């Protein structure tokens, strides 16, 4: 008895052991696919709800999100078991429902991925917008400042020329009796006072412009450092812009110039506020954000589809015996270009002439196809999947051992009969 048990273990076969490991591995992957599908569905649902809740009431958005993700999973499972030729209307309705649900999910998930992936770009865009507004305002200031300085220089030059002409008696306002008399007369004193006043005004304006330039340099420094320390430098930028505006408005008004409109910068809370999802995000389309949104739903569909279309588990002993006996009824076998054993599942001409009923063997083919042990080549042939070979080899080995045991038993009986005759 012990010997028979050892022989059975030895012949039980490496193929059976490897098939058990492979079956366990494939089964584990299938079981693990279920929580993965659920996690992907929840992930897609979260991003869909986030985008949808900005457009409609949150509880309605939640209900639509749950319905959308349920439709994706259910239609993915259902479409795996449908065949186009069997029921075209049902197939198209399921496919259309799947496409509508995935489109809605991807569209509203895109907003979330866009906000996440483009957050740094949004921050940079806002900083550049602030810089542009401030720099445009400073450019207007510098242009008006240049005009004021030109005007002051022209007035100072005129005052200088008047003083010089009054000193030499060549000024146009000098009476004829005092013309060409050189010296510091009353006319010279009058124009000299005007010159000194204009010179003092020019120096004062120069000092004020120097202070304005210092403030502008501080403003530009805070602008340039917005990216490194946004909070502190943004507040400094707002305060220094106000200082520049106040100082320049005083200078421009005293010189009779129109002051330019200063930019209205947003508050720091507005500046750092996250972007609210809107359909304007499609204007600056982000392929990366769209790919992230699409790939989650695609993997959900793919794994749910594979759950329905692949073999749910290994064959039992009775199922193996049934399949082996039914497959033996086929007569046309060949090795195809994939180096796999291929079976022609159509009736042969002789079988058709004899009206042979192939229900049992076709049941075995359909059973193995649904369980993933056979792969369909075309309408008239199938091929072995790798996990079917060890099962068939084990059954053939059992049969060979049984035949060998019968032949040994028959030989022993004949030998015993020969001894009895003697």
Structure write-up:
- With 422 residues, this protein is mostly helical.
- Helices cover 73% and strands 4% of the residues.
- It has 13 helices and four strands.
- The protein has helices spanning 2-12, 14-52, 58-81, 88-117, 119-168, 186-224, 230-254, 268-271, 287-309, 317-327, 349-353, 359-371, 389-421, and strands at 333-335, 341-344, 374-378, 381-384.
- The chain has a four-stranded antiparallel beta sheet with strand order 1-2-4-3.
- The longest helix is centred in the middle third of the chain and has 50 residues, at 119-168.
- It is rod-shaped and about 175 Å long.
- Residues 1-12 have low confidence and may be disordered.
State the secondary-structure class: mainly alpha
Number of domains: 3
Q: Would you list the SSEs in sequence order as H and E?
A: HHHHHHHHHHEEHHEEH
* Uncertain parts: 1-12
Number of helices: 13
Distance between the termini: 32 Å
* Main beta sheet strand tally, sense and closure: 4 strands, antiparallel
Oligomer: single chain
Share of residues in helices: over 70%
Identify the strand order in the major beta sheet.
1-2-4-3
Specify Rg, calculated over alpha carbons.
47 Å
